[in-house]
Amino acid sequence: MPKDTLEAARVDGAGPWQSFRSVTLPFLRPLIVILTTLSVIWDFGVFNQIWFVRNGHPEPGYQTLGIYMYSQGVGSSHYKPGCQPWAC
Fold first, then answer.
1. Within 10 Å of residue 48's Cβ, how many Cβ atoms?
2. How far apart are CA 86 and CA 48, in angstroms?
3. What is the pLDDT of residues 30-47, one digit of tens each?
4. What pTM value is reported for the model?
5. What's phi and psi for 82, nearest 5 deg?
6. Which residues contact 24 (CB under 8 A, 6 or more apart)?
7. SS percent in the chain: helix, strand, coil, step 5
8. Is the CB of residue 28 less than 8 Å from the CB of residue 15?
9. pLDDT score of 71 more than 60
10. Of 36, 51, 74, 77, whose CB neighbour count within 10 A is largest?
11. How far apart are CA 16 and CA 55, in angstroms?
């Protein structure tokens, strides 16, 4: 991140929180989106390893998004929370 951009925000009267929120965070937003997307993809990709190593009954500490959706949707026949984990 260019230091002159932060310096310009400081000269314009922005405090530390405003500088972070208005300058640093938008600069880092593409990186945050890419890392979040890759993390979700990895969580779905590791389903088989966790499910079979834990004999089909993973403890809550081992539950990823994919395992939670599968256990709610298929295992418990609660299809709405299994399809939309944010709706629980």
1. 9
2. 22
3. 999 999 999 888 878 888
4. 0.60
5. -70, -30
6. 1, 6
7. 75, 0, 25
8. no
9. yes
10. 51
11. 50
In this structure, which amino acid lies at residue 9?
A
Phi and psi at residue 2, in whole multiples of 5°?
-65, 130
Amino acid at site 31: L
13: left (phi over 0), alpha (psi -120 to 50) or beta: left
**Residue 22 neighbours by CB under 8 Å, 6+ apart:** 9, 14
Q: What is the largest CA-CA distance in the chain?
A: 60
pLDDT tens digits along 8-67: 888 989 899 998 998 899 999 999 999 999 988 887 888 888 888 888 777 888 788 788
Dist. CA 45–CA 37, nearest whole Å: 12
